[in-house]
Amino acid sequence: MSIQAIVLLGAPGAGKGTMAEAIRGATAFIHVSTGDMLREAINAGTPVGREAEVFMRQGALVPDEVILKIVMARLEQGGPDALYMFDGFPRTLEQARLMDAEFTRRGAKLSHVFLLDVSRAVSLERLGGRRICRRCGANFHVRNIPPKKAGICDNCGGELSQRPDDSRATILKRLEVFQQQTAGLVAYYEKRGLLQRVDSSGPRDETVADIMKRLQ
Ligand code: AMP
Question: Is residue 49 part of a domain?
C-alpha cells in the first residue's frame, strides 16, 4: 500500500467543507482543509497564522510556499498508507505541480478530483448566509440550515458568527480569485483523466451519495 488521495475542487461556497465532513464520517479518509489549518494557525498566533491572516482577510490566496509547508508537514503525520481528502488544496497550478512531484517522490496516488459545480448565485447565497459556531466550529445557514434558536449553536449553545472573509466584498473577491487562479486546475486534471464533475447545487445528501457512488 501507499498514500492515496482525492481532491475536492470548487468555488467558494461549492460545499467542499460540507462534503468533506460527510465523506470523512463514512470513510477512512483524513480530511485536510488548508483553510481550517490556516484558521487554526491564526487562532494559535503562530508565524504562519500571522502571515496568512493578512491575505485571508482580503480574500486573496496565501502564498504557495506557506501552503506547501503546512501540507507537507501534514503528510508526515498520516503514515505510509494514509488516505487523504484535500479540501481547498491545491488552489494554483504551482501547488498542483508541486503536489504531483511530491506524490511521485513518495509513490503516492491521486485517484479522483471532484469538481463541485455550482452557479455563482448559489455560491453567493451560501456564503452570505453561512454562520459558524465560535465555540465548536459547527456550520449553519440562516435559511438552509437554520439553528433552532437564532444566533445560538444547536450542538453546544455557543454563539454563531460570520467568518471574517464572508463579508459581501470579500466573497466577491474570493470568487474572482477562484476564476483567475484556481479554475485553471479543471483543465489540468481533465487532461490527466482525473476530473469528475459533480452537481453540488442540490440537497447535501444527494451530492454526498453521488460522490460516494463514484468512490466505490
Ligand atoms: P477556505 O476555508 O478553503 O475557504 O479558505 C479560506 C482562505 O484560506 C482562502 O480564501 C485563502 O485565503 C486561504 N487558503 C486556503 N487554502 C489555500 C490554498 N490552497 N492556497 C492559498 N490560499 C489558501
Answer: yes
- Is 41 within the bounds of a domain? yes
Residue 200 within a domain: yes
Q: What pTM value is reported for the model? A: 0.95
Question: pLDDT truncated to tens, each residue of the chain (216 aa)?
Answer: 688 999 999 999 999 999 999 999 999 999 999 999 999 999 999 999 999 999 999 999 999 999 999 999 999 998 889 999 999 999 999 999 999 999 999 999 999 999 999 999 999 999 999 999 999 988 999 999 999 999 999 999 999 999 999 999 999 999 999 999 999 999 999 999 999 999 999 999 999 999 999 998
Ligand 1 neighbours (beta carbon < 6 A): 12, 34-35, 38, 55-56, 59-62, 67, 88-91, 95, 165, 174
Which listed residue (39, 126, 131, 174) is catalytic?
174
Residue 149 belongs to a domain: no
From 24, 39, 126, 163, active-site residue:
163
- Phi/psi at 97 (nearest 5 deg)? -65, -45
CATH number, residue 65: 3.40.50.300
Please state the atom number of ligand 1 nearest to the C-alpha of residue 56: 12
